Automatic annotation (TrEMBL):
UniProt keyword annotation of Transmembrane present: yes
InterPro entries hit by this protein: MFS_dom, MFS_sugar_transport-like, MFS_trans_sf, Sugar_transporter_CS
Organism: Seriola lalandi dorsalis
Keyword Coiled coil: no
Domain of life: Eukaryota
Protein name: Solute carrier family 22 member 4-like
Length: 469
């Protein structure tokens, strides 16, 4: 049997394990736990960089009443505050903004810090995808968790804004990369209905629940340095999982490391109490392994088919999710409650994704969900202010469902030899796609993607289905 046929029949070769034995259940729940650190830290920027209401500090000897300060100070001609600032402590005891006075002439530093965090995520996606496809899923997963833990803790001791910004960049590098590699690792180890259940429902559910824990923590811990230390706890708790989470056998096979793959699968067979065949995989030619090792980011653009699919996916994964989440500070009301609701709305979205992934084509699902989200966001501009939060939640529901479906779509379209690079690259360039393309153009692009519903995962670039013409 040729290497191409062997890789094409991977799922048939490991079918002796079944789809939901003790091995699959263990991997399923362990991988769900490893996503907690990145979900918990995802939008910490909202609370760390919050800018509470503030005004110039009035010296005590000025004999000005509080009423005069509140009523008339805002009407005066604005100038620099020579005696510092007074910040509201209604919601926050201290933030980066209040400690380093990122207001007035230094107000530009606040959005710049958010941008640096965002750029860290872009760089992390670009680097981690290629490292994962070259050196394995497991090292990148736990390396990302380590980065989240180390730099979250380091933030608490930042003596200045420049130091905080550098550390925040490093924190961002481990953020999105962590979720993507967990998604890829689970998608490659699990097969059949358990893979759909993992990628569509349980993994994002745990991710969202971890997100929902952050506003509760921020409500109780309103000092940004203490909050930074609290953000290290999930990562520290995941350290012992290194010995329990296996490498992806599918990735090992794509690299020609058949003995390692068979060792993992035979242990899995032992756990599942099934008898493995004498030979699980036939030998792979050395040249195949060498060719796999040479694949990189540039291979996503090398052939016509993968270039079309990659470019469409780059410009289709919506940044609206991050836009809605990062801009929630503009909503009225309690910021902790708003963030909790914006996180909680993802739970029904993922249930919808799971139901759709079981029985509906990918393109139709993505287009429908995205149009729902777009319509809700457009209605915000023409409806009463009292309905804004409801429409924002409906908009995020639709955008989240569409984005979640597109993650599944990307994983199914991308071959094993370069799957993590492809998904990381799509996440990295999704920002550019949303910047140059309106929402409806995303839907237009998706029309040209091939369907993957009930199709086997490709392992090589040659096995990728052609785009629609």
């Amino acid at each position: 049997m040729s290497s191409l046929s062997k890789m094409q029949d991977y799922e048939e070769s490991v079918s002796f394990l079944g789809t939901w034995g003790p091995f699959q259940r263990r991997v399923f729940f362990l991988l769900c736990l490893t996503v907690v650190p990145c979900g918990y830290n995802l939008l910490s920027v909202i609370f760390l960089l919050a800018s509470p209401p503030h005004h110039c500090h009035i010296p005590a000897h000025s004999n000005l009443s509080e009423e005069w300060i509140q009523v008339f100070l805002s009407s005066l001609k604005q100038e620099g505050c020579k005696d510092g600032w007074i910040y509201s402590t209604e919601y926050y005891q201290s933030t980066i903004v209040t400690e380093f006075n990122l207001v007035c002439s230094d107000q530009w530093k606040q959005p710049l810090t958010s941008l640096v965090y965002f750029l860290g995520g872009v760089c992390g996606c670009f680097v981690s995808g290629q490292i994962s496809d070259r050196f394995g899923r497991k090292p990148v997963l736990f390396g990302s968790i380590a980065m989240l833990t180390i730099f979250s803790g380091a933030l608490a001791f930042a003596p200045s804004w420049p130091v905080f910004t550098v550390l925040f960049f490093m924190l961002g590098m481990g953020q999105i990369a962590c979720y993507i590699v967990v998604f890829v690792l689970g998608s490659e180890i699990l097969i059949g209905s358990s893979r759909v259940l993992f990628s569509c429902l349980f993994l994002p559910f745990v991710y969202v629940i971890a997100m929902m824990l952050l506003p509760g923590t921020a409500y109780l811990v309103r000092n940004w340095r203490q909050l930074s230390l609290a953000m290290t706890v999930p990562g520290i708790a995941c350290i012992p999982l290194w010995r329990l989470v296996p490498e992806s056998p599918r990735w090992l096979v794509s690299r020609g490391r058949l003995q390692e793959a068979e060792f993992i699968l035979r242990l899995a067979a032992l756990n599942n109490r099934v008898e493995p065949p004498d030979v699980i995989f036939l030998s792979v030619e050395k040249t195949t392994s060498q060719k796999a090792e040479s694949l990189s980011f540039l291979d996503l653009l090398r052939t016509t088919n993968i270039r079309y699919i990659t470019l469409i996916l780059w410009f289709s994964i919506s940044v609206s999710y991050f836009g809605l989440s990062f801009n929630m500070s503009s909503l009225n009301g309690n910021p902790f409650l708003n963030y909790f609701l914006l996180s909680a709305i993802e739970l029904p979205a993922y249930v919808t994704i799971w139901l759709a992934a079981r029985s509906l084509p990918r393109r139709l699902s993505f287009i429908s969900f995205t149009l729902l989200g777009v319509l809700a966001l457009l209605l915000i501009q023409v409806t009463l202010h009292t309905f804004t939060l409801a429409l924002v939640l409906l908009g995020k529901y639709g955008i989240m469902a569409g984005t979640g479906m597109l993650y599944i779509y990307t994983g199914e379209l991308s071959p094993t030899v370069i799957r993590n690079t492809a998904m990381s690259t799509c996440a990295m360039f999704s920002r550019a796609g949303s910047a140059v393309s309106p929402y409806l153009l995303h839907v237009f692009f998706c029309i040209f993607l091939p369907e993957t519903f009930r199709q086997p995962l490709p392992d090589t670039i040659q096995q990728m289905p052609p785009t629609q013409r």
